[in-house]
Amino acid sequence: MAKLSGALSAVTGAESVIAFSYSCFFPADSSDGQARTQLLGALLVPFAVIATSMIIWGVSSNLYRVLSQADATLGLRTQLRVLGIIAVFILYPSWAQAALSVFACYKIDDGKTGLYPQNQKAAWRNGYWVRDMSQECYTGVHLRLYVPIGITAVLVLCFGPPLASLLLLWRRRAALSSKRVHQRYNFLYTRYKPRFFWWESVLMLEELALVAVEVFGRGLKSVTHQILVMLAAFIVISAINIACKPNRLTIITMLEFMSMTILSLTVSLSLFFVVDDGLSAADKVEK
Question: How many CB atoms lie within 10 A of CB 65?
Fold first, then answer.
């Protein structure tokens, strides 16, 4: 699951705790401090990236002639607004991963099973926060500080962009073919059939579903269960896309379907390496 998590993080742009962590800048911090640094960095750095991109674009638009044609038809404010929308779409998986990670917990012991259940110390019923395994979930600092941050982040950063995209296009649905709207927002709807002009919001929700599987899948102890949940997500997304066929070009729909098919096959075949195919030696001896 670790390799699959890293691959999915790399593909979607989500934060990868395998390749990079903001807490590396503060190695002397305690586990709580490192968890706070990781979370705030993952939530706030994308805002800094967007702001920096806008500043660079604003400066370059006044220095280089390559943007003269765009400047002649779009004002700088409009250009920056479009740039901000594009940046949000690119950074959306990273925000979703950071927001959902607040609620990702892992149960270590249950205090009931095992050889010496009376000696199990990590038996908190709600598990432990994956960003700080010394922090019990939904109690103490996690409940007072991080849960409110997580709820706000999920509402604003996970559901805000898809809703904003839908409202942006819905208000202009009667003028999508006009030059003014097409010039500003064509990247949101031109690849889709007219009746599916809002499909970009669905696409973002599909990304959110995949990121959610990646985040909460870490809390499943069984690798088999992790794989099955990921496989179910692939199948559902494929079924939705192939049933609706929102793309104007059939070849794009087929390429998306084949891509999901290959991913599903890869995940399915990986079960050969994690599922036991018979009784273990210890079980045979007992029988």
Answer: 7
The whole-angstrom separation of Cα 250 and Cα 92 is 27
**Dist. CA 5–CA 206, nearest whole Å:** 17
DSSP assignment of 195-263 equals GGTTHHHHHHHHHHHHHHHHHHGGG-S-HHHHHHHHHHHHHHHHHHHHHH--BSSHHHHHHHHHHHHHH
In a domain, residue 169? The reply is: yes
pLDDT digits (tens, 9 = 90+) for 175-189: 888 888 888 888 889
| Domain annotation covers residue 225 | no
The angle subtended at Cα 204 by Cα 42 and Cα 152, nearest 5°, is 45
Which pLDDT belongs to residue 181? 86
Q: Cα dist. 167→141, 172, 197 in Å?
A: 36, 9, 11
DSSP 165: H
Please work out, in degrees rounded to the nearest 5, the angle formed at the alpha carbon of residue 260 by the alpha carbons of 255 and 266. 125
Domain range enclosing 63: 2-111+121-192
Q: Is residue 226 part of a domain?
A: no
- Domain-embedded: residue 232: no
- Residues in CB range of 158: below 8 A, 6 or more apart: 95, 96, 99, 100, 208
The span from the CA of 36 to the CA of 38, in Å, is: 5
Query: Element (H or E) spanning 129, and its range?
Result: strand 128-129
**Tens digits of per-residue pLDDT, 54-89?**
788 777 655 555 455 555 566 777 777 888 888 888
CA-wise closest residue to 35 among 140, 152, 110: 140
DSSP 8-state assignment for residue 147: H
Whether residue 108 is predicted with pLDDT greater than 90 in this model: the reply is: no
Report the candidate in 198, 208, 222 with the shortest Cα–Cα distance to residue 271. 222
pTM of the model: 0.77
Q: In this predicted structure, what is the pLDDT of residue 123? A: 74
Give the total number of structural domains in the chain.
1
